[in-house]
């Protein structure tokens, strides 16, 4: 199971964010390259989690009258 991704970590520069291991920047285990993967807050700054998203607002569907039963009396 994947670890929960922190939105605003205290010191993002100390961690590699390339996989779920979150290795220290000086001791990467996964081999995800020779440089650590930066946290989005380092790249996009404050508010990175809401940038570029187009949230879909839920549509409220009003319940209508119940459907009449079929003419032959069968369901399905």
Quick structural gist:
The chain is low in regular secondary structure and 76 residues long. It has one helix and no strands. The relative contact order is 0.14.
Portion in strands: under 5%
Order of helices and strands: H
Radius of gyration, in Å, reads: 24 Å
Distance between the termini: 40 Å
| Biggest sheet architecture | none
- Poorly predicted runs are none
DSSP summary, beta strand count: 0
| Basic shape | elongated
| Count of DSSP H/I helices | 1
Give me the secondary-structure category: little secondary structure
Q: What is the average of the pLDDT values?
A: 77
Fold and architecture overview:
The protein is largely without helices or strands. It has a domain at 10-45. The protein is built from 1 helix and no strands. It has one helix at 40-44.
Q: What's the SSE blueprint?
A:
Elements: H1 40-44
Question: What are the key terms here?
Answer:
76 residues, little secondary structure, 1 helix, 0% strand
């Amino acid at each position: 199971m994947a670890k929960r991704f922190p939105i605003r970590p205290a010191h993002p520069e100390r961690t590699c964010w390339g996989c779920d291991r979150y290795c220290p920047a000086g001791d990467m285990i996964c081999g995800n390259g020779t440089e650590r993967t930066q946290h989005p807050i380092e790249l996009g700054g404050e508010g990175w989690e809401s940038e570029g998203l187009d949230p879909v607002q839920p549509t409220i569907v009003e319940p209508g009258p119940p459907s009449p039963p079929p003419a032959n009396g069968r369901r399905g």
